[in-house]
């Protein structure tokens, strides 16, 4: 299978390829995507001058 380039396929690395309207919604207690990973994506979107909306939901998770 060879080596997989995780960094090259990360959301932040692909930010410049996004098109259309973008809404990011994040639950701050989600342990699958921690807040710092969301902020990396936000930073990458700002760097490539992409417009987006961001909602941070306190105490919201996708788990039961």
UniProtKB/TrEMBL annotation:
Q: Per the record, a Pfam family?
A: Peptidase_S9
Task: Indicate the segments forming the Peptidase S9 prolyl oligopeptidase catalytic domain, all copies.
Answer: 18-58
Task: State any GO BP term from the record.
Answer: proteolysis
- Molecular function terms from GO: serine-type peptidase activity
Q: Which SUPFAM superfamilies match?
A: alpha/beta-Hydrolases
Q: What is this protein called?
A: Peptidase S9 prolyl oligopeptidase catalytic domain-containing protein
The scientific name of the source species is Amycolatopsis panacis
Lineage of the species this protein comes from: Bacteria, Bacillati, Actinomycetota, Actinomycetes, Pseudonocardiales
């Amino acid at each position: 299978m060879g080596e997989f380039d995780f960094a090259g396929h990360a959301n932040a690395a692909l930010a410049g390829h996004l098109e259309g309207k973008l809404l990011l919604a994040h639950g701050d207690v989600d342990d699958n995507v921690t807040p710092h990973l969301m902020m990396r994506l936000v930073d990458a979107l700002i760097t490539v001058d992409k417009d987006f909306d961001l909602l941070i939901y306190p105490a919201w998770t996708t788990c039961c």
